[in-house]
């Protein structure tokens, strides 16, 4: 198992009671979670909100909540994923699946058994992802492709997983709750 990576610095700025801008939080992100099951993936939960529009006067820590793989159905979350190249021989599938189930707080995440990758899943969300360091392989049920530093992906509720080509890598994700899947190609029905 890899050592936890150093979380990114998280600065949250809002408005004080006097109406002036103020720093609300400034520290290494305190909300880092392991993916579990022997994985080398770490989720840094930066900020989550439950509904949109967001109440901008509420300055409670939006990252301070139970780890949830997906955002609230009517909300969104922002996370930074830090990972190392994985050795699939060290993945404990049962423990990884159990941990995934505990992270499925909102019920928007769904696993799929796959011979291609141990973590094939989908979320009923629109996801905007940016590779900020390294390379990541986007694994699909029948194919895959490499994404490099600076590449951007928009995910529309499809089955997928991620893998690392080498060393450490980072991605930023904004995940927004979605409605229904397009399951004309034989996926599940939600």
Task: Tell me what you see in this structure.
It contains 1 helix and 13 strands; from the N terminus they run βββββαββββββββ. The chain has one domain (30-177): Sandwich (Jelly Rolls), CATH 2.60.120.10. The chain has one helix at residues 93-103, and strands spanning 9-15, 21-28, 32-34, 41-49, 76-83, 109-111, 121-123, 125-133, 135-139, 144-148, 152-156, 161-164, 169-177.
Short description:
By secondary structure, the chain is mainly beta. It has one helix and 13 strands.
The level 1 CATH classification is: Mainly Beta
* Strand element count: 13
Helical residue percent?
A: under 10%
CA(first)-CA(last) distance: 35 Å
The CATH architecture classification is Sandwich
Please name the defining characteristics of this protein:
190 residues, mainly beta, Jelly Rolls, 6% helix, 41% strand
Spell out the blueprint of helices and strands:
Layout: E1 9-15, E2 21-28, E3 32-34, E4 41-49, E5 76-83, H1 93-103, E6 109-111, E7 121-123, E8 125-133, E9 135-139, E10 144-148, E11 152-156, E12 161-164, E13 169-177
Antiparallel strand pairs: 1-2, 3-4, 4-5, 5-13, 6-7, 8-11, 8-13, 9-10, 9-12
């Amino acid at each position: 198992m890899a050592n936890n990576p150093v979380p990114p610095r998280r600065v949250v700025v809002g408005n004080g009671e006097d109406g002036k801008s103020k720093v609300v939080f400034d520290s290494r992100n305190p909300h880092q979670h392991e993916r579990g099951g022997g994985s080398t993936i770490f989720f840094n939960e930066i900020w989550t909100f439950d509904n949109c529009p967001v109440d901008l006067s509420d300055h409670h820590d939006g990252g301070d909540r139970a780890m949830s793989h997906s955002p609230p159905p009517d909300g969104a979350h922002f996370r930074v994923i830090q990972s190392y190249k994985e050795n699939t021989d060290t993945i404990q599938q049962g423990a990884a699946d159990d941990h995934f189930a505990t992270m499925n707080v909102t019920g928007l995440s769904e696993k799929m058994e796959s011979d291609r990758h141990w973590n094939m899943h989908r979320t009923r969300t629109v996801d905007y992802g940016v590779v900020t360091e390294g390379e990541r392989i986007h694994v699909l049920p029948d194919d895959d492709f490499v994404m490099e530093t600076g590449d951007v992906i928009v995910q529309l509720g499809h089955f997928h997983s991620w893998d690392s080509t080498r060393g450490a890598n980072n991605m930023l994700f904004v995940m927004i709750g979605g409605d229904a899947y397009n399951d004309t190609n034989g996926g599940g029905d939600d």
